[in-house]
Design brief:
Layout (H helix, E strand, L loop, with lengths): L2 H14 L4 H16 L5 H11 L6 H14 L2 H13 L5 H17 L2 H18 L4 H11 L10 H9 L4 H7 L1 H22 L12 H10 L1 H4 L1 H10 L5 H19 L5 H34 L2 H12 L3 H15 L5 H18 L4 H12 L10 H10 L3 H7 L1 H16 L2 H9 L5
Helix pairs in contact: 1-2, 2-16, 3-16, 4-15, 4-16, 5-6, 6-7, 6-8, 6-11, 6-14, 7-8, 7-21, 8-11, 8-21, 8-22, 9-19, 10-24, 11-23, 14-15, 16-19, 17-19, 18-20, 19-20, 20-23
C-alpha cells in the first residue's frame, strides 16, 4: 500500500472505533510516517506547533467567552424582548422571534450550539406556555441556531480563512447576505408550519406600538448596540477580528456588570472556562490536522482528487453539487470545524483550478455544514434543544425535516448564484 492509502485506511478505522477526531488524525499520521517511511518523525512536533502558532485563532475563544458573558449579563433577554414586540403577536410569532433573535445573537457569539442555548433557554418555555408543540419549539430553535455559524463573527469562517489564506474580514463580509437569505427562508418555513398548525403569537404581548417599541429600544440601547460595536470596529478598520473579539469581551463585561448589573464573578469564571474548553478542543484538531495535511500534501492528495473529479466533470456547478452531497453524508458523523479543517486544504486547490471563487466556495462549505447541526447522530443543535425542551432527539429529528428542506433550497441558491456571496466583499474591497 502507498503511504496515502495507509493514512486514509488508518484514519477510517479510528473513526469507526470512535476515537476522537484529533487522536484519529494524529495516530493515522504517526502510523503512516513509521510504516511508510515517508518523512522524519521530527515533522510531528514541528507540525503540531505550526498548527497552533496561528494568531487569528485567538479570536475563537474570545468570541465564545463574549457570547457566554452576554447570555449571563441579560443582554440576550433584552434582545429577545425587543424582537418579540415586532412580531410576537402574529401566527408563529414566538417561532419567528426565535429565528430573528438567533440571527441577532449570531452577530455576537459565532457559535451555532451557543446560539441555540442562549435563545432557546428563553423562548422554548415561552412557546410551550403559549400552546406551541414541543416539536415545533425545539425544531425552530435548533434550525435558528444554524445561522450562528453564518452571520459574522463566525468561528468556522475564521478557520476557513486561515486554511485558505484569505482575509477573515472578507469572509465575514461575505456571510451577511447568505446569512440573511437563510434567515428569511427559515422565517418563512416557521410561519408556514405555525399557520398550518394554528400556533398563535404571544397572547400576553400587547399590540405593536411605536411608542412602546422605541421606549424598549431606548431601554435596551446598550444591548442592541452590541453587534454594531463588534462588527463596526472591524469594518471601520479600527480593529482586526482578533482585536474585535477582545472588544466584544470588554463590551459584554461593561454592559453586563455596569448597565444591567446582572453579571457576577461566578458567571465570568464559567464563561472563561467555557471558552478554554472550546478553544482547547479546536486547537487539538487544528494541530493534528496540520500534521495530517502535510502527509496529504507530500503524497499529492489534492492533485489526485482534482484529477479524479475532473474525469467525472469539469463543470464547476456539477463539482459543487458533488461536494455538497459528500458534505451532507460527512455532516452526520463529523463536527463542523473538523470537517472544514480536514477537507478545506484538500478541496481548495481543486476549486481554484476549476475557477470557483474561494470566498464563494467557503460560504457554500460553511452553509452546507449547517446541515450537520440538524442531522443525527451528531446534530449538536438537536442535543442542545432536546435538553432544553425535554424532548427526545428522535422526535426533534423528524420535526426539523421542513427546515432541512428549506436549508437545502438556500444551499442550492447560494451554489448557483455566487454573486450573493461575493458581491459585498468585492464591492467593499475586502476580497481583493
Amino acid at each position: 500500500m502507498t503511504p496515502l492509502e495507509i493514512a486514509l485506511i488508518c484514519m477510517a478505522v479510528m473513526f469507526i472505533l470512535g476515537v476522537p477526531i484529533f487522536m484519529s488524525l494524529a495516530i493515522a499520521s504517526v502510523v503512516t510516517l513509521v510504516v511508510g517511511d515517508l518523512l522524519p518523525l521530527t515533522v510531528v512536533h514541528n507540525s503540531l506547533f505550526d498548527g497552533l502558532n496561528i494568531f487569528p485563532l485567538l479570536a475563537i475563544p474570545c468570541f465564545v467567552v463574549a457570547g457566554s458573558l452576554m447570555e449571563y449579563g441579560n443582554i440576550t433577554n433584552q434582545i429577545v424582548d425587543v424582537v418579540k414586540q415586532m412580531v410576537g403577536r402574529m401566527y408563529g410569532g414566538l417561532g419567528i422571534t426565535t429565528i430573528l433573535a438567533c440571527t441577532f445573537f449570531a452577530a455576537i457569539s459565532g457559535s451555532g450550539p451557543g446560539t441555540v442555548a442562549a435563545v432557546g433557554t428563553i423562548l422554548i418555555p415561552a412557546m410551550l406556555r403559549n400552546g406551541y408543540s414541543k416539536d415545533y419549539a425545539a425544531a425552530t430553535t435548533s434550525s435558528g441556531g444554524t445561522i450562528g455559524i453564518l452571520i459574522p463573527p463566525s468561528n468556522p469562517m475564521i478557520i476557513y480563512a486561515i486554511l485558505g489564506n484569505l482575509s477573515v474580514t472578507a469572509m465575514f463580509t461575505a456571510g451577511f447576505l447568505p446569512g440573511f437569505l437563510v434567515a428569511f427562508i427559515m422565517l418563512t418555513t416557521a410561519w408556514i408550519i405555525a399557520k398550518k398548525n394554528g400556533f398563535q403569537g404571544d397572547t400576553d404581548a400587547p399590540p405593536f406600538s411605536w411608542r412602546f417599541f422605541l421606549r424598549s429600544c431606548r431601554k435596551c440601547f446598550f444591548a442592541l448596540m452590541t453587534p454594531f460595536i463588534i462588527l463596526g470596529s472591524i469594518y471601520s478598520g479600527m480593529a482586526t477580528p482578533v482585536e474585535a473579539s477582545v472588544v466584544a469581551i470588554a463590551w459584554a463585561l461593561f454592559v453586563g456588570s455596569v448597565i444591567n448589573r446582572a453579571l457576577k464573578l461566578q458567571h465570568i469564571q464559567k464563561s472563561l472556562l467555557e471558552g478554554a474548553m472550546i478553544c482547547g478542543g479546536v486547537l487539538l484538531i487544528v494541530g493534528a490536522s496540520t500534521l495530517f495535511g502535510k502527509i496529504l500534501t507530500f503524497e499529492e492528495a489534492p492533485q489526485r482528487m482534482t484529477a479524479m473529479v475532473m474525469e467525472i466533470s469539469r463543470d464547476p456547478k456539477v463539482v459543487l453539487l458533488m461536494i455538497i452531497g459528500v458534505l451532507y453524508v460527512l455532516g452526520m458523523f463529523m463536527e463542523t470545524l473538523s470537517t472544514i479543517i480536514i477537507l478545506a486544504p484538500v478541496l481548495l486547490p481543486m476549486i481554484l483550478e476549476l475557477g470557483i471563487d474561494p470566498i464563494h466556495f467557503g460560504i457554500v462549505l460553511i452553509v452546507t455544514n449547517n446541515v450537520a447541526m440538524l442531522t443525527p447522530p451528531l446534530g449538536v443543535n438537536l442535543f442542545v434543544a432536546s435538553r432544553i425542551a425535554h424532548l427526545s432527539v428522535e422526535r426533534i429529528s423528524i420535526a426539523v425535516i421542513p427546515y432541512l428542506i428549506a436549508l437545502t433550497i438556500a444551499i442550492l441558491i447560494l451554489a448557483f448564484i455566487p454573486e450573493i456571496s461575493t458581491w459585498l466583499p468585492y464591492t467593499l474591497g475586502y476580497g481583493k
